[in-house]
Amino acid sequence: xxxxxxxxxxxxxxxxxxxxxxxxxxxxxxxxxxxxxxxxxxxxxxxxxxxxxxxxxxxxxxxxxxxxxxxxxxxxxxxxxxxxxxxxxxxxxxxxxxxxxxxxxxxxxxxxxxxxxxxxxxxxxxxxxxxxxxxxxxxxxxxxxxxxxxxxxxxxxxxxxxxxxxxxxxxxxxxxxxxxxxxxxxxxxxxxxxxxxxxxxxxxxxxxxxxxxxxxxxxxxxxxxxxxxxxxxxxxxxxxxxxxxxxxxxxxxxxxxxxxxxxxxxxxxxxxxxxxxxxxxxxxxxxxxxxxxxxxxxxxxxxxxxxxxxxxxxxxxxxxxxxxxxxxxxxxxxxxxxxxxxxxxxxxxxxxxxxxxxxxxxxxxxxxxxxxxxxxxxxxxxxxxxxxxxxxxxxxxxxxxxxxxxxxxxxxxx
Length: 414
Hints:
This protein has helices spanning 23-36, 38-57, 65-90, 98-115, 120-144, 149-168, 178-185, 199-225, 233-255, 262-280, 282-292, 294-299, 304-330, 341-351, 363-382, 387-413. The protein is mostly helical.
């Protein structure tokens, strides 16, 4: 009795799931994953290239420990604004008032502490409350009166700029108390045995690397549980190595100078907190929903007016915090402070991956976009590039970023 045995040819693996374990196959998988996740990794790669180019052009001056520390101090207020602006843009709105509001809160802090002798912790809380009230008023008019955010915040820009000049009477006012100055210029204290590095900064860097790696693995596992597409393992591990190496390099550079600036710790807490809200909290998902498809969000029960109101209230608080940081760093409040800060924050958000139509963007993307602009500014200053050409180059960077977003969406649609 014979048995008919039919040879079966294994079905070809679907694209991106190939079992080819050769170096060429793994490379193909990684390149495919990079193309499919270009929106996520594009600006991160661009930031790395910009850092390398300016390091070469400046003969390494860009990555000197002192310059890296100055880079953090000089751009911290823009990064704080970019976090709030990213939320506003994801929700489908815009805020043109943040630059003037930062100037106004700095002037308010100067009047309280310098002219009236108010203790700086009390002044800090009052300034944050002023920012919250300003953001709440604008958010209420946008959400419940239906006035376009462009018009409301344009009016706010003019109002807060005028109030700043009224408060300061056209004069620069300072200096601030020492405790408030440390918010913009201070560093973490020394701790532990005497070494050539700042021990507390090294410890924080190690903790940040461990936290980042665990968070990335957690996010990847959750995406797989919900059957969402994830990057190939090789590309994912390469991303972890690159991020960990970048954190380690920055940590070593800061630790070899004066340590981590206090404002960097504040900024790190904001990134972790807002990143968690946008990834895991219901409020964050609602922001994405109303920016991505407002009618569908309403039908799903999302309280779009309430969400919009709180998004602008949050932007007001972050603008006040940025105003305190920049005033503390300059040790004075000026009527001309905050000029073009709103444009820098908006540009950081779009360069970091926000979409013009709303519904797309991440907190980390806003930070990356802000760092791209910060490194461009710092590198061009080191190369003695004139401010006229600096504006041209930053404008071209913004145009390229938005053009890339449009091209990427068309490619995905096709």
